[in-house]
Amino acid sequence: MFSRGTAKFFKSAVGSASKRFSTESNAKASASNLLFKASVATAVGSGISLWYLNKNTAHADMQADGLHPPHYNFPHTTLLGTFDHASIRRGFQVFKEVCAACHSLDHVHWRNLIDVAFTEDEVKELAAEYEYEDGPNDQGEMFMRPGKPSDPFPKPYPNEEAARAANAGAFPPDLSLITKARHGGADYVYSLITGYCDPPAGVEIREGLNYNPYFPGGAIAMAQNIFDGVVEYEDGTPATASQIAKDVTTFLGWASEPELDDRKKLGVKAVLLFSTLTALSLWIKRNRFSSLKNRKIVFNPPSNWNTPTKK
Amino acid sequence: MALPVKISASVINRTFFSTPNTTAAVKAVGATAAAKFTTHKSASKSSAVSITSASRTITNFTSSPKNIGYQQRFSSGFAAGPGSEKVPSFGDYTKERTNDSSRAFTYFMLGASGTVVAATAQSAVHGFLMNMSASADVLAMAKVEVDLNNIPLGKTVTIKWRGKPVFVKHRTQEEIDEANSVTIKSLPDPQVDADRTQTPEWLVVVGICTHLGCVPISDSGDFGGWYCPCHGSHYDVSGRIRKGPAPLNLEVPEYTIDGSTMVIG
Amino acid sequence: MALSAVTKSVSKFTYNTFFKRESVYFSTVVVGAVAFSIYFNSAVDNWWDNRNKGKQWKDIKDKYVKPAEE
């Protein structure tokens, strides 16, 4: 309906324009005019595209940009998939036992894990394993107490300077938003932690750095930490390096986007509702306009209608 | 069900000017007619244009093919002059007036869109209102758990809850009896002890003096409860005001006791 | 023919029952909106849970919840 109407509109617009701008007014002229305009539009459009492509040439500088990670089928990166919550649970274990030695997770609190990967009782036990400073008490002194679900994850270092001092100048980034903050997202994180290898011939890696083709520049301060069996899963999942990497990537993806499951479900609902509304409003527009479009104009010609006018 | 719109503008035009046989000729008529109409505007003073609804006027119309030449005017059969106000029939395109299903369908579609709009709007408003409620971090801090096993008999413990001190008093039997023996009518703010506690052993009060907001001192004062050092208000073992400038009893917060765990908030 | 007769009677009944009076029509729309939102939400939720079966927390929760008497 729209397309036909739009086509008609443009046809009539082109026709009237050609009438206005040329002495000839027949169908052939307007068709060639349309063709001319279409050619000009195509030429301009392709010109701009070519200029843009010329300015922004495709390049693959692996040394500078890092190897582009392949695409992995994480369920939560698909259009309508939720997180694999069992994987979040395992990934938390990996994070706690491996990553948390150097990396912080500032934006995640213990309570965030409740009804995501742990029960409330389990979270209380997990939090109570750590000591937090609280206070001041009646005497105005700070004191230590076991953690509560409302506390954030403990930090491995009190500040950035301490972290750099402990890691030979390198600062382990906070992992709260890491899958959002890196190009490639979950694919990059997975590729990075599984992608350590020997440097190719001719590439020199300084002492204290490690070669990783997925890391921009190729030399990363973080050493390989994920190996087969580096953790032992409580649910009996074989702890291969790729399984561990997958689980911790899923966990970090959840830390970045804890609202993802609800967001996607809400998106489905919104798309369904609004497409229904669009269809209904199109129908109602037709219905309301039908009385207007059914109008009939009757012309009563004058009595001298047939008499030719003299020049 | 038949949709009400079956006649597009082009169909009407074609029917109206349907003297020529071919579509190309129809187009030519349209072009020349438009041009001629403006030319003869001055001459056609007595002409009238009337609009009628297609469904109302139903007159049969017959047309006879005529040649349309260049500069030919409207010399067709249906537009031939006075007394020939014949209107083409749109009978093929109009609907039966007796057909109620189309009307019901129209109302159904209108009602359905209203329903979906209302449901969507309700969901949107709900989302906005939920946005105003307390956020998760506030809710997480709003409750405090107290392990009652750590409070020996006769002791009072101060707990921080939403930035305020809360006194949890483990009362002895003598204290309970004392709280119940008071003549209620003689109190400045009369309240039975049973109304202030869930179980008699545990008294929970917000530790803010109702006078000017100082924090009273536990287990002191003339009545064995609390004593406010700022202006000398005395509270008894039930947290009720007995002496001094404070107007009201100490406030009792919401709490639940489940076994040996008390949750305040 | 029979089908059109059925359509006619159904539409006539619907029209006379729900659409004829403005107040009834409006009430029908409001009640329908409530019913529709409940039905729609539960339908989408069911489809969603079915599509992501085994991945969500409620599917694996039973493995980790300790019995209440502990």
From TrEMBL, chain A:
<dbReference type="InterPro" id="IPR002326">
    <property type="entry name" value="Cyt_c1"/>
</dbReference>
<dbReference type="GO" id="GO:0008121">
    <property type="term" value="F:quinol-cytochrome-c reductase activity"/>
</dbReference>
<keyword id="KW-0812">Transmembrane</keyword>
<comment type="similarity">
    <text>Belongs to the cytochrome c family.</text>
</comment>
<keyword id="KW-0479">Metal-binding</keyword>
<keyword id="KW-0999">Mitochondrion inner membrane</keyword>
<dbReference type="GO" id="GO:0020037">
    <property type="term" value="F:heme binding"/>
</dbReference>
<keyword id="KW-0679">Respiratory chain</keyword>
<dbReference type="InterPro" id="IPR009056">
    <property type="entry name" value="Cyt_c-like_dom"/>
</dbReference>
<dbReference type="GO" id="GO:0005743">
    <property type="term" value="C:mitochondrial inner membrane"/>
</dbReference>
<keyword id="KW-0496">Mitochondrion</keyword>
<feature type="binding site" description="covalent">
    <location>
        <position position="102"/>
    </location>
    <ligand>
        <name>heme c</name>
    </ligand>
</feature>
<feature type="domain" description="Cytochrome c">
    <location>
        <begin position="86"/>
        <end position="238"/>
    </location>
</feature>
<dbReference type="GO" id="GO:0046872">
    <property type="term" value="F:metal ion binding"/>
</dbReference>
<dbReference type="GO" id="GO:0006122">
    <property type="term" value="P:mitochondrial electron transport, ubiquinol to cytochrome c"/>
</dbReference>
UniProtKB/TrEMBL annotation, chain B:
<keyword id="KW-0408">Iron</keyword>
<keyword id="KW-0249">Electron transport</keyword>
<keyword id="KW-0479">Metal-binding</keyword>
<keyword id="KW-0472">Membrane</keyword>
<dbReference type="InterPro" id="IPR006317">
    <property type="entry name" value="Ubiquinol_cyt_c_Rdtase_Fe-S-su"/>
</dbReference>
<dbReference type="GO" id="GO:0008121">
    <property type="term" value="F:quinol-cytochrome-c reductase activity"/>
</dbReference>
<protein>
    <recommendedName>
        <fullName>Cytochrome b-c1 complex subunit Rieske, mitochondrial</fullName>
        <ecNumber>7.1.1.8</ecNumber>
    </recommendedName>
</protein>
<keyword id="KW-0001">2Fe-2S</keyword>
<dbReference type="InterPro" id="IPR036922">
    <property type="entry name" value="Rieske_2Fe-2S_sf"/>
</dbReference>
<keyword id="KW-0496">Mitochondrion</keyword>
<feature type="domain" description="Rieske">
    <location>
        <begin position="169"/>
        <end position="264"/>
    </location>
</feature>
<keyword id="KW-1015">Disulfide bond</keyword>
<keyword id="KW-0411">Iron-sulfur</keyword>
<dbReference type="InterPro" id="IPR005805">
    <property type="entry name" value="Rieske_Fe-S_prot_C"/>
</dbReference>
<dbReference type="InterPro" id="IPR037008">
    <property type="entry name" value="bc1_Rieske_TM_sf"/>
</dbReference>
TrEMBL record, chain C:
<dbReference type="InterPro" id="IPR008027">
    <property type="entry name" value="QCR9"/>
</dbReference>
<keyword id="KW-0999">Mitochondrion inner membrane</keyword>
<comment type="subunit">
    <text>Component of the ubiquinol-cytochrome c oxidoreductase (cytochrome b-c1 complex, complex III, CIII), a multisubunit enzyme composed of 3 respiratory subunits cytochrome b, cytochrome c1 and Rieske protein, 2 core protein subunits, and additional low-molecular weight protein subunits.</text>
</comment>
<keyword id="KW-0813">Transport</keyword>
<dbReference type="GO" id="GO:0006122">
    <property type="term" value="P:mitochondrial electron transport, ubiquinol to cytochrome c"/>
</dbReference>
<dbReference type="Pfam" id="PF05365">
    <property type="entry name" value="UCR_UQCRX_QCR9"/>
</dbReference>
<dbReference type="GO" id="GO:0045275">
    <property type="term" value="C:respiratory chain complex III"/>
</dbReference>
<keyword id="KW-1133">Transmembrane helix</keyword>
<dbReference type="GO" id="GO:0005743">
    <property type="term" value="C:mitochondrial inner membrane"/>
</dbReference>
<keyword id="KW-0472">Membrane</keyword>
<protein>
    <recommendedName>
        <fullName>Complex III subunit 9</fullName>
    </recommendedName>
</protein>
<feature type="transmembrane region" description="Helical">
    <location>
        <begin position="24"/>
        <end position="48"/>
    </location>
</feature>
<comment type="function">
    <text>Component of the ubiquinol-cytochrome c oxidoreductase, a multisubunit transmembrane complex that is part of the mitochondrial electron transport chain which drives oxidative phosphorylation. The complex plays an important role in the uptake of multiple carbon sources present in different host niches.</text>
</comment>
<dbReference type="InterPro" id="IPR036656">
    <property type="entry name" value="QCR9_sf"/>
</dbReference>
<keyword id="KW-0679">Respiratory chain</keyword>
